[in-house]
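Summary of Year 1 activities. Much of the first year was spent building the evaluation harness for sequence design. The harness presents a backbone, in tokenized form, and records the residue chosen at every position. We chose the following record to illustrate the format because it has been used consistently in internal testing since the harness was completed.
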């Protein structure tokens, strides 16, 4: 059954893609609108379409379980979602049915405050610096704000 409580992250392996997607959406966007939840869904779909090892390959499991890809997957909400909640039922529905893409080709998202902390404006252009050591600022070429999250894509992607 989708959303069954797990003891640890190693048990994510072997779950079907709908269950993994629902857990990712729920843990990343539990308190967000349907549009915000769909944004998380589409980030996974967009990364999967890239079929790049950087994003975990071309499977839902590969993308979601890529180390460090989705901070929510390290939270207790991903291990044991409240399956009686409205947030879970909406997350599960989106995982099953997708819905309209509100974020275009965006591949990342952050809370607005974190996104703004990582933005700079060299030469008047908006650039995002990833938290990886030695990361250089990359020009933002697509950006969508949904509630308190910013979905974005940088040059080269």
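For this record, the design step produced the sequence shown next.
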């Amino acid at each position: 059954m989708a959303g069954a409580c797990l003891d640890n992250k190693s048990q994510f392996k072997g779950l079907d893609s709908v269950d993994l997607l629902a857990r990712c959406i729920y843990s990343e966007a539990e308190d967000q609108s349907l549009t915000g939840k769909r944004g998380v869904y589409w980030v996974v779909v967009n990364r999967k379409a890239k079929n790049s090892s950087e994003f975990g390959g071309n499977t839902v499991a590969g993308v979601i379980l890529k180390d460090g890809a989705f901070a929510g997957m390290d939270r207790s909400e991903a291990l044991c979602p409240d399956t009686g909640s409205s947030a879970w039922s909406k997350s599960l529905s989106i995982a099953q049915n997708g819905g309209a893409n509100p974020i275009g080709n965006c591949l990342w998202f952050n809370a607005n405050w974190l996104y703004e902390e990582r933005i700079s404006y060299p030469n008047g252009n908006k650039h995002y610096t990833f938290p990886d050591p030695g990361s250089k600022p990359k020009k933002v070429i697509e950006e969508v704000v949904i509630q308190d999250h910013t979905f974005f894509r940088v040059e080269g992607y």
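The chain has a mean pLDDT of 96. Quantitative recovery figures across the full test set are reported in Table 2.
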